[in-house]
Each structure stands twice: as structure tokens, then as C-alpha cells.
Automatic annotation (TrEMBL):
<keyword id="KW-0436">Ligase</keyword>
<keyword id="KW-0804">Transcription</keyword>
<feature type="binding site">
    <location>
        <position position="198"/>
    </location>
    <ligand>
        <name>biotin</name>
    </ligand>
</feature>
<dbReference type="InterPro" id="IPR036390">
    <property type="entry name" value="WH_DNA-bd_sf"/>
</dbReference>
<feature type="binding site">
    <location>
        <position position="127"/>
    </location>
    <ligand>
        <name>biotin</name>
    </ligand>
</feature>
<dbReference type="GO" id="GO:0006355">
    <property type="term" value="P:regulation of DNA-templated transcription"/>
</dbReference>
<feature type="DNA-binding region" description="H-T-H motif">
    <location>
        <begin position="28"/>
        <end position="47"/>
    </location>
</feature>
<keyword id="KW-0238">DNA-binding</keyword>
<keyword id="KW-0067">ATP-binding</keyword>
<feature type="binding site">
    <location>
        <begin position="131"/>
        <end position="133"/>
    </location>
    <ligand>
        <name>biotin</name>
    </ligand>
</feature>
<dbReference type="InterPro" id="IPR004143">
    <property type="entry name" value="BPL_LPL_catalytic"/>
</dbReference>
<dbReference type="InterPro" id="IPR036388">
    <property type="entry name" value="WH-like_DNA-bd_sf"/>
</dbReference>
<dbReference type="Pfam" id="PF02237">
    <property type="entry name" value="BPL_C"/>
</dbReference>
<dbReference type="Pfam" id="PF08279">
    <property type="entry name" value="HTH_11"/>
</dbReference>
<feature type="domain" description="BPL/LPL catalytic">
    <location>
        <begin position="86"/>
        <end position="269"/>
    </location>
</feature>
<dbReference type="InterPro" id="IPR003142">
    <property type="entry name" value="BPL_C"/>
</dbReference>
<dbReference type="InterPro" id="IPR045864">
    <property type="entry name" value="aa-tRNA-synth_II/BPL/LPL"/>
</dbReference>
Length: 334
């Protein structure tokens, strides 16, 4: 499909959603007339939206409407919610409808001409091939979560990026705190939890030569209001609508997170994890907990003892502190 055709399709889908999202029923023939489509084309669009995970109520003689109101991404709303110091960079924000993954969009943009600056980011309503750490699938229902990826170029190369996913976790947590979402914890190396359930995740993808400027594509997913019938998530999870009674605006959340990343990534690039160590420790999910780490073909048990300046996990094993740069953590059963 040509780019212009894809853009037209996205624009049409957004127009249809805006109509279905107003709380009223709309007859198929009325939608067809208003959007200059055939009645069968409207029916196909409705089916496509259902496949994306949207719950559309259909009643004969009354028409269609979204069962639950959704908030769609809005560049103008995000820009308006940015603090004054960041509004001049709003041109770096790109909003898409359905993409393979926001990381894919940012990765392609990082190689484009003209040169794209650090801080460029892409947000999307849904991902058809979202992914998490170790290639796992990231379930991405339509308009139910914040899917955001940001480009940052590190002139210091790979060495300057050590601990980046941990720093991003700190920033996600502090952003949530600013919106009165409290008591979240950080799971090494890339997750945000609330009451032992996953709320958000980070995926860092790196491109570049050793010793040269390196590009980091920082992928972030935050569950906002997942459908009751969501499928394909194989671990305990939660979303913002389950945590707080106060609705969280997706556009406000996006603006706050983007601003904090723009503020803190230069600090991280200059000083590494040092300015973020205490902030991580305050929210460490496994600090002083008995845990098991699977690293390669080894299974090691011990007590979580925080992280070091490189972002490595520190494990107290019978009084000896060992550092681990990779692996999977679980709570050790008594």
C-alpha cells in the first residue's frame, strides 16, 4: 500500500472512531453518507475496528457506537500539555494510528534524510507487532495503552548507554507520581509494577558502531485502560484505570513523559546512572527480597541488594555480593 493510501485509510478510521466515540448510536447509512463511503465499506471498517480490540455495540435499527469512550491521541492536546520549556520541540512528536511497532517507525526515521534530532518520538494508537524484551510479544489493543518510542543519539557510544532502561523506568515512575499514581515499583531491568502486577515496560534497541555515535530507540508501553477480554498476556498485569479512580488522560500522560525524558536524557548522557541511583533504590521491587535469577544455563538464588553504577543487578549470595548484567528474576519461593 502506498504511503498516501495508508494515510487516507488512517484518516478515515480516525473520522469513523470520532463519530462512534460521541456516546450516540449512528446508523450505517448515515455514517456512509457522512464519510462518503458505501454501506458495505462501513461494515468492513467496523469489522476491522473490532479486530483491533475495540468493543463496538451494534443494535439493529439504531446502528453503532463504542461501548466505552476512548481517548485518541492528539498532537495539539499533547503540545498544549507540554510545559513552556518544551513546547518549542513539539515538532519532534509524530502520531500514527496503526503501526507494526513504534520502535520500527523511529528506527527507520533515525536513518532518514534530513537528519533527525535526539528527542524525536512516535506514538501510535495500536501496534500489530509490538515487542518486549527477548523478542516477546507486547499485546497492544487499540487506544488502550500508551505506545511511545523515542530516539536518542549518544556521542559516547555504547558505553554511555549503560543502565539506560533503568533510568527510563525511574522517569516513567516519576511521571506517574506527578499524575498522582503512587506506590509503583521498578523491576530490574525494564519493568514498572504496581502491587506485584506489570503496569509498564521498556524496550531499548541500539544501533551504531563501537566507539562512534550510537542511536538508542527507547520503546515504552504503559497500560491505561485495557479491554476486559484482552488476550495474549501471560503474566499478572494491571492498568491505570484499575489503580486510580481519577481518569488519567493519555495525552496528558504522553506530554508529561516526553517532557521528563527530554529533561533527563541529557543528564543521563553526561553522568550515567549516578544521578538516578537513589531514585531507583527507593522503588526497587526486589531490594532485600529473596530472589532467583536465571542467567543463561545457570540458576542463582540470593537476596536482592540493589544495582551498581553500571545498572547491574547486585545479588547477596551467602554474604558475597555478585553483579549480574543479564538474566530473568523471580521471587524465590520459601
Amino acid at each position: 500500500m502506498k504511503k498516501s493510501q495508508a494515510q487516507n485509510k488512517q484518516a478515515l478510521r480516525t473520522q469513523l472512531l470520532n463519530k462512534l466515540n460521541d456516546g450516540h448510536f449512528h446508523l450505517g447509512e448515515d455514517l456512509a453518507s457522512e464519510l462518503a463511503l458505501s454501506r458495505s465499506a462501513i461494515s468492513e471498517q467496523i469489522k476491522a475496528l473490532n479486530k483491533l480490540g475495540l468493543d463496538i455495540c451494534s443494535i439493529k435499527g439504531r446502528g453503532y457506537k463504542l461501548t466505552n469512550h476512548i481517548e485518541l491521541l492528539s498532537h495539539s492536546q499533547i503540545q498544549a500539555a507540554l510545559p513552556a520549556s518544551s513546547q518549542g520541540n513539539a515538532f519532534l512528536i509524530q502520531i500514527e494510528n496503526l503501526v507494526s511497532s513504534t520502535n520500527d517507525i523511529v528506527k527507520a526515521k533515525s536513518h532518514s534524510v534530513p537528519y533527525v534530532d535526539s528527542g524525536y518520538c512516535c506514538l501510535a494508537e495500536a501496534q500489530s507487532a509490538g515487542r518486549g524484551r527477548r523478542g516477546r510479544n507486547w499485546v497492544s489493543p487499540y487506544a488502550s495503552s500508551l505506545y511511545l518510542s523515542m530516539l536518542w543519539r549518544f556521542t559516547g557510544g555504547h558505553q554511555a548507554m549503560t543502565g539506560l532502561s533503568l533510568m527510563v523506568g525511574v522517569i516513567i515512575n516519576e511521571t506517574l507520581q506527578s499524575l498522582e499514581v503512587l506506590n509503583c515499583q521498578l523491576k530490574w531491568p525494564n519493568d514498572v509494577y504496581h502491587e506485584q502486577k506489570k503496569l509498564a515496560g521498556v524496550l531499548i534497541e541500539v544501533e551504531g558502531q563501537v566507539g562512534a555515535t550510537t542511536s538508542a530507540i527507547i520503546g515504552i508501553g504503559i497500560n491505561i485502560n485495557l479491554p476486559a477480554n484482552v488476550q495474549g498476556i501471560n503474566q499478572a498485569f494491571t492498568d491505570l484505570s484499575s489503580i486510580t479512580k481519577k481518569p488519567i488522560s493519555k495525552n496528558q500522560l504522553a506530554a508529561a513523559l516526553i517532557h521528563k525524558l527530554w529533561q533527563n536524557l541529557p543528564i543521563f548522557e553526561a553522568h550515567g546512572m549516578a544521578p538516578f541511583m537513589a531514585r531507583w533504590k527507593d522503588c526497587d521491587l526486589y531490594y532485600k527480597k529473596h530472589i532467583t535469577i536465571v542467567a543463561g544455563d545457570k540458576i542463582i538464588t540470593g537476596t536482592g541488594n540493589g544495582i551498581d553504577n553500571t545498572g547491574a543487578l547486585l545479588l547477596d549470595i551467602n554474604g558475597s555480593i555478585k553483579a549480574f548484567h543479564g538474566g530473568e528474576i523471580s521471587v524465590r519461593q520459601a
